[in-house]
Design a protein that fits this description.
By secondary structure, the protein is mainly beta. The protein has two domains: 115 residues, no CATH class; 44 residues. Helix content is 15%, strand content 38%. Strands 1, 2, 3, 4, 5 and 7 form a six-stranded antiparallel β-sheet that branches. A hairpin with a 2-residue loop joins strand 3 and strand 4. It is elongated and about 90 Å long. It is a single-pass membrane protein. This is VAS1L protein.
């Protein structure tokens, strides 16, 4: 794919040439195209060549990226092919770059595969916050499971006891006074379930 600009300043016959390849991948069961390299031609000869990295999409899609550049601040998707040619002297940057080499219909781009990473800073921050919240929830559940019972003032836990009705004349025999400093309390003699301190 060639973009011909003609004469630009001192550059005679400036051409930007994109070399695209297509391959079939069995894992995705479809053809994918990729940008193999980019060449800058002027004065009727190749002057600079850049190898392209990570610029690919399914053959029925187009590829879109906000910046495709040889500069590190734009993630350097274009890498000089050799230190011996003039590629090091060039800085190439495409803004709002979109390309499609195959299966073009009615002169319009197909659905675009964007170069945005699945793990952008916002997504990573969301994952970290989710992990922190999960740790807090796990700690809270751990504390609830190991929560001590407040029944430690009793010698044992007794289910509700059923006491048969007693006659009025037997009440005196069933209760025995307990000696204490100033209070008078009673305790059942026959304790079948549990001893409770008052």
């Amino acid at each position: 794919l060639s973009l011909k600009f003609g004469d630009v300043g001192n550059l005679k016959g400036l051409v930007i040439r994109f070399l695209l390849t297509t391959s079939y991948y069995q894992m995705s069961v479809q053809n994918w195209f990729s940008l193999h390299s980019l060449q800058l031609l002027y004065n009727h000869s190749t002057q600079a060549t850049f190898n392209a990295t990570r610029i690919y999409a399914p053959a029925s899609y187009s590829y879109h990226c906000e910046h495709v550049s040889s500069l590190q601040r734009y993630d350097a998707l274009l890498i000089p092919s050799s230190a011996n040619d003039l590629s090091k002297l060039w800085e190439v940057t495409f803004t709002d770059f979109q390309i499609q080499g195959f299966n073009i219909q009615e002169g319009h781009f197909a659905y675009a595969k964007d170069c945005a990473s699945f793990f952008s800073p916002a997504i990573l921050m969301g994952l970290v916050m989710s992990l922190i919240l999960l740790l807090v929830l796990a700690y809270a559940l751990h504390m609830l499971i190991h929560l001590k019972s407040l029944d430690r003032h009793y010698e044992c836990k007794a289910s509700p006891a059923y006491f048969a009705e007693v006659k009025d004349n037997d009440i005196g025999d069933e209760k025995e006074p307990l000696r204490s400093n100033a209070n008078e309390s009673y305790e059942l003699r026959n304790q079948q379930f549990c001893k409770i301190y008052i």
